[in-house]
TrEMBL record:
Naturally occurring in which organism (per UniProt): Idiomarina abyssalis
Protein name in the entry: GTPase-activating protein
GO biological process assignments: ribosome biogenesis
Protein's UniProt keywords contain Oxidoreductase: no
Bias type Polar residues, positions: 39-54
């Protein structure tokens, strides 16, 4: 017996199939295919369209930290303590007392910090001893 190759055809004895009907929505979806990527001609788009696209991205991101205000200024006591512990200022004061010459920038720094020190001392009510020596301690 000779071999017969299988086919997908049902043959004359199989039941016939009804033809498929196309719906209106299928015809509409078969139109223009949705493309990928950015629309063409963005370089030549009007500025109005570009501004609208930017406003979407300008919305505030809720993940960016708290809006609670933080005081950036130290209390007078903290600022006075910081001035007293400033090593650069201490070195400049020693050089000034030893009659060494200071550059204009160093002199300006010394003047600003010493003026601020005097303001803080007056504000806190401390008394400055003009004849204070290191040997008394």
């Amino acid at each position: 017996m000779t071999r017969r190759k299988k086919t997908r055809k049902a043959g004359p004895l199989a039941p016939s199939k009804a033809p498929k009907e196309r719906q209106a929505s299928d015809a509409a979806s078969k139109g223009k295919k949705k493309g990928k990527g950015q629309p063409s001609g963005q370089r030549h788009s009007s500025t109005k369209v570009l501004q609208q696209s930017r406003t979407k991205g300008d919305e505030k991101d809720p993940r960016h930290g708290s809006r609670r205000k933080v005081a950036l200024v130290m209390t007078p006591e903290q600022e006075l303590k910081q001035l007293q512990e400033d090593t650069k200022l201490q070195l400049l004061v020693e050089r000034f007392e030893n009659d060494e010459s200071l550059t204009a920038e160093e002199q300006r720094y010394l003047d600003e910090k010493s003026e601020r020190y005097e303001q803080l001392v007056a504000k806190l009510g401390y008394e400055l001893d003009e004849e204070w020596d290191d040997e008394e301690y």
